[in-house]
Specification:
Layout (H helix, E strand, L loop, with lengths): L28 H8 L2 H21 L4 H4 L1 H23 L2 H17 L1 H7 L2 H28 L6 H9 L2 H16 L6 H5 L4 H13 L2 H19 L21 H9 L2 H31 L5 H25 L5 H21 L4 H12 L3 H11 L7 H10 L3 H15 L7 H18 L7
Helix pairs in contact: 2-4, 2-9, 2-14, 4-5, 4-7, 4-19, 4-20, 5-7, 5-12, 6-7, 7-8, 7-19, 8-18, 9-15, 14-15, 14-17, 14-18, 14-20, 14-21, 15-17, 16-17, 16-21
Keywords: Cell membrane, Membrane, Transmembrane, Transmembrane helix, Transport
Membrane topology: Multi-pass membrane protein
Subcellular location: Cell inner membrane
């Protein structure tokens, strides 16, 4: 088994024993908290996308579908880098993969500076893609690593607790977007309505300069995180290899073949794909829905609803964590999904501002979804030689965030913004069905 590195200087030691299955005998709190603090970093980046979609739609005169390409570029980076990240984890360590992710995240954030000067939509998409490559490293490593950071029986709860930090970052991202990117006064659309030619271009370029401000602060935080992770000792998170059996490391082709025949794993992947797509779509269009239902508010005012949404997401996670002490994760997931479907139907058929408050409720009902589906799907991998790659493939299911918002944008363009939420009804129904099937499995797998 690969042991935690003994060489080199570590200011913060591990202080926990690694077990045969890759888990620890107890949770090292400093390392676990430090790892959990990565979760708000990608939450911040993802929530800023919701701000960018609203801003780019007006400045670059985009349709709902075209503006959703912000999410496509972002999640495509996740999709393409997850497997390479898993291979690096397999050959080296979770810690190195995290440090690579932090470095790429810093580079991607830095590309926003030339992008704002070029003032082209495509250049911003390149910056988002590069940034997402770093986030893919972070998520591929941190999600699995969090579940391994202690006794196996608490793996799902441990990941759910780490995921609770996500909405804190998301709220921070929205607040930065609200006050650093969006201005006061009339909406961008109204301000630019009477502009033409050079005047419109100059106004748009000035507005794009505001996108730099949040990323300046993010870069500073990332550099501090790199230093702290470099000084901290982490476990390998890998199972012991029984040398008497001479069990070789699994090749990527062998792992893919193993997972392709794992029906429960495939069900989890599809469910995660639909869930992430739904989460991304709801958050992408909440601001647009508010402005569509109330023409008297601007982007800054409408973004307040996203702050409420992420606060609800945080509360939803806390409630789900509490409920999991009394019910199985699958039962909690089922309950949240049923109420989520009802809330989405309300958005579709009630055309006033109460529908926006229903999107906030939906965000709260997202609480247990990602972490529960992730952990349960990873648990279906009984041959632990495939754990790192399996975790990467689950992260690749985030690609749902690239496609479901496009589908909702298309429905919004051909019908109404309210009716476009039917796409999310279908997604939450898939999650509810998944939870129901998990409840029918033997108790140990819940």
């Amino acid at each position: 088994m690969e042991k935690p590195a003994k060489s080199g200087f570590h200011l913060f030691k591990l202080g926990a024993k690694e077990l045969d299955d890759g888990y620890l005998d107890r949770t090292p709190m400093f390392q676990y908290i430090l790892l959990s603090l990565l979760f708000p970093m990608w939450g911040m980046a993802a929530s800023l996308n919701d701000i960018l979609i609203t801003q780019f739609k007006t400045i670059f005169t985009l349709s709902n579908v075209a503006s959703a390409f912000v999410q496509t570029a972002f999640y495509l980076g996740y999709f393409l880098i997850a497997i390479p990240a898993s291979l690096i984890i397999k050959k080296t360590s979770y810690k190195l993969a995290i440090m690579i992710g932090l470095t790429l995240y810093t580079i991607g954030s830095s590309i926003f500076f030339p992008a704002s000067r070029m003032a082209t939509y495509g250049f911003f998409l390149v910056a988002l893609f590069a940034l997402a490559c770093g986030l893919s490293f972070l998520e591929t490593s941190a999600n699995t690593f969090s579940s391994l950071m202690g006794p196996k029986k608490f793996s799902t709860l441990r990941l759910n607790i780490s995921q609770t930090f996500y909405p804190i970052g998301a709220m921070s991202g929205i607040l930065m977007g609200k006050y650093l990117i969006f201005g006061s006064g009339a909406s961008l659309e109204k301000q630019m309505a009477g502009m033409n030619g050079a005047e419109r271009i100059a106004f748009g370029e000035n507005a794009l300069q505001h996108t730099l401000l949040p990323y300046k602060y993010i870069i500073m935080v990332l550099l501090v995180a790199l230093v702290i992770f470099g000084l901290t000792q982490f476990p390998s998170g890998k199972p012991k290899v029984d040398l008497t059996k001479k069990q070789p490391q699994a090749k990527i082709s062998e792992t893919v073949a193993y997972l392709a025949h794992n029906k429960k794993f495939l069900q989890g992947i599809f469910t995660e794909f639909m869930y992430v797509g739904m989460q991304t779509a709801v958050w992408s269009f909440t601001i647009r829905l508010a402005m569509d239902l109330n023409h008297n508010i601007n982007e800054r005012s409408a973004s307040t609803f996203m702050i409420f949404s992420y606060a609800a997401f945080f509360i939803g996670k806390m409630i789900a964590n509490f409920m999991m002490k009394r019910f199985t994760p699958s039962r909690v997931l089922q309950i949240f999904s049923v109420f989520g479907i009802i809330a989405l139907l309300y958005i579709m058929f009630v055309h006033n501002m109460t529908a926006v408050y229903s999107t906030i409720l939906v965000s709260g009902l997202f609480g247990p979804c990602w972490a529960t589906i992730y952990s349960q799907t990873l648990d279906t991998v009984t041959d632990k030689r495939h754990t790192e790659t399996a975790g990467a493939i689950i992260v690749m299911s985030i690609i749902g965030g690239a496609f479901i918002p496009l589908a909702q944008g298309f429905v919004a363009d051909i019908s109404t913004m309210s009716m476009s939420f039917v796409v999310n009804v279908v997604c939450f129904a898939v999650v509810a069905i998944y939870a129901t099937f998990k409840l029918r499995e033997p108790k140990a797998s819940h």
